Amino acid sequence: MSIIPPHRQFLHGHQAFYIYPFESHLHMTHYLAVTSTCYEETNFILDQDSISNRSNVTKRGTMCVSHLEVSPGYHTFRHEHDTASYMLMSYGFGLKVGYSHIISFNTRPVTCQAYDDIRDVTKEYMCEDVNQSFCPENETEDGGEIVSWPKSDIFKTINSTKICPLTFTKAGIPIWSRRCNLTDDLEVIWNDPIRNHCGDEITINKPEDLLTAEVTTGNVEEVSSTLQHITEEIEDISTDDVTDVAQTLTKVVGTGSSSKSVTNSVVRTVDTVLTDLSKAEVSDGQFNTMDTAFSTSEMVQMMDQQLQQTLEVEDNFTITEDAIQVQAFHLDATDNPGDYTLNPIKQKPEDAHTSVVLPKAIFATQETTVSVTFVLYRDDALFRPPSKSLKEKPAPELVLSVSVVTSTKIEKLLQPVVLNFPRPQNNRTISSTTSCVFWDFHENNGVGDWSEEGCKYAGATDDSVACECDHLTNFAVLMDYTDEVEEMSEAYTAFLDILTKIGCTVSIIGLIVTLVIFAIFNTDKQNAYSQINQIDNEDVPRDKRVVTMTISIRSQSRVCSKYLFRDLALGLTNDFELVNIMFDL
């Protein structure tokens, strides 16, 4: 046997070594022998790969020797803990040749630490003095029920997977808990299980009853399903109900659950709130408050987040409710799909004229599939700002929400996203002042409000109204209308203006002439007034009666033309016999 030492050096905390290659005809096989205490032998890393699961292990008392086959060339080796003790040796054998060589020793005293959170102290001890560094898997029995306990580190408290049901005041907390402890004699043991009190039994009839429940991955499906059912039972929704539903939805989504059943319950709950709010009487401002606006805006965000969480693990899915329709799917951007058109599932005739066209620029830079969610809200009740701004225009009849998960933020697109909304069948002409808007969650200190930034009105057809936006979010169109009768009258505006000017000019000339005649033929003004005041209009023939007019010249020229000119001309035709004109400029 020939002994051939390998090259070794320390490199960035790793043991780096080199296994010499041999002639191919020698058929050499190379091994790495690692000697350590048995509780440490599961924490080695060879060439960035953990070698914790290995079967070729020889035990000698408390020591373990692992034999790993390696290939010729450079390798790195380390232990997860820099202070671990081990010996590294390489060896190999083939046809009439072999070698063995100690690569390194790491025999520094190994000190372990464990933090006791109950006593708030850190305990140090020699690792080799402890029989093991964890509590093994275990099962206990309580009242005939078997409770399983997973492997646990020292000074860790493990909770049971079974939790208190929703019908108790402490719903969601674990029924049992158990602690892995280290005794003063350095023995690692399980403490006895502790049964936690679930509180008093309660009845859940309204969203408020769920606020005290702790929502975890263990009961999130139960909580979301219960919230859905009690929300559907509300007869007259209140502002407090809206707030309570939003808070519970936040806790449900906050568990990170991607369960399809949870997502269905979340969408149906939001759909119910949307339907109830759209039917509620809002003219008195009951729901036009900051708290309600914040809660409804939060619902929209939570539902969007839940859809994304589910789409991460699910394939394409759709959810269709009365007021909300959801389509979620994966699109392979590597196929160069070009402009991609999203159409809702047709439930109503106007759905045929609703669509979103995503420009190909969104997918051009993506190297994998992208996640797309398309939500249609048939009412804007979840998007009502607490104050008026440009929302003085008619409320949108539906809202389109589009979300595309990509590696880059989608904004300021050179080729815009085109949104087509169905045109209301009210025989009214859409004004050019119609606004295309999106719901900005940052407005009103996080409450949200409609914003026109990045969006513009792109025209209308007989069936639809088009908008263009350079980003993605929740979109709507705030339409201004102009009655067709008023549109026809505007065609005569120029003619009426000319007629008004002519009429007012003639009226003024006639007034001047009347005043001149009155001044000439009535030298004694006081006597004339006295005589006029004694006249009884009932005794004077109709064509001789005093005509008294109050002239008010206003900004609306058509008023001047219609009344002043007519009445003044009538007075002039009476031969100026008795005319008393008073005017108020």
Write the layout of secondary structure elements.
Elements: E1 7-11, E2 14-19, E3 29-37, E4 44-46, E5 49-50, E6 57-60, E7 63-70, E8 73-79, E9 86-93, E10 98-106, E11 111-116, E12 121-126, E13 134-135, E14 138-142, E15 145-149, E16 152-153, E17 156-159, E18 176-182, E19 188-190, E20 194-195, H1 220-232, H2 239-254, H3 260-279, H4 290-311, E21 317-320, E22 324-332, E23 340-342, E24 355-358, H5 361-364, E25 369-377, E26 399-405, E27 417-422, E28 429-430, E29 435-440, H6 443-446, E30 449-451, E31 455-460, E32 464-469, E33 474-478, E34 481-482, H7 484-489, H8 493-521, H9 525-533, E35 550-552, H10 557-572, E36 582-584
Parallel strand pairs: 35-36
Antiparallel strand pairs: 1-2, 2-8, 3-7, 3-9, 4-5, 4-8, 6-7, 9-10, 11-12, 13-16, 14-15, 17-18, 18-19, 18-20, 21-22, 22-25, 23-24, 24-27, 25-26, 26-33, 27-32, 28-34, 29-30, 29-33, 31-32
Helix pairs in contact: 1-2, 1-3, 2-3, 2-4, 3-4, 8-10
How would you sum up this structure in a few lines?
Helices cover 24% and strands 31% of the residues. It has 585 residues and is of the alpha+beta class.
Describe the structure.
This protein is an alpha+beta fold and 585 residues long. It folds into 5 domains: 7-108, no CATH class; 112-195, no CATH class; 233-314; 315-482, Chondroitinase Ac, Chain A, domain 3 (Sandwich); 490-584, no CATH class. Helix content is 24%, strand content 31%. It has 10 helices and 36 strands. The strands form 10 sheets. Strands 21-22-25-26-33-29-30 form a 7-stranded antiparallel sheet, with helices on one face. A 5-stranded antiparallel sheet has the order 1-2-8-4-5, with no helix packed on it. Helix 2 (239-254) runs parallel beside helix 4 (290-311). The radius of gyration is 43 Å and the shape is elongated. Residues 1-13, 483-488 and 528-585 have low confidence and may be disordered. One of its GO terms (cellular component) is membrane. This is Putative G-protein coupled receptor. Residues 315-485 form the GAIN-B domain. The chain crosses the membrane at residues 498-521. It comes from Stichopus japonicus (Sea cucumber).
